[in-house]
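Quick log. Single chain, no ligands specified.
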Amino acid sequence: MAKLSGMSGEFKGREFPIEQGEITIGRKADNTILLDHPTISSHHCRIVRSGDSCVLEDLDSTNGTRVNSRDVREAILHHKDLIQLGSIEFLFDAPELAAASARYTDANAEMATGAMSAPQDFASISPFGAPPKERRGFWYVVLAIVGVIALASLLTFIFMLINA
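-> predicted structure:
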């Protein structure tokens, strides 16, 4: 049976079954699944289950609806999807739908036509790149000055202890 399993906060470990038809999720009492939490809208989203498919639809919620960390207005749910409603996380657990969903067929793979080689420079693996070399000297000077001040302070402290 398909279900939402709470993964965070006060909903961790709680399970909500997803049966055929439509369920609504929100903070108001008229929802099928009531989530009394400040980051959940009155009518946050709905899940429509029809046969072997479940579709999640955001209902213009204030804090948004995400599936696998992507903002969505509407999304087809797959087994083991991570659903975030406001700041609450749920795992969509539907093993019976796993075989029915062809999830990896929409990948855009391109075949390389030429020879492949490694990048020329592995000097920095930072996504921001290495700092410019002209700024490195400045930071070495700043570090040296801070070191001298710290050493002078330490020696002054020791001298005061000895003479006290």
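Helices lie at 95-98, 133-163.
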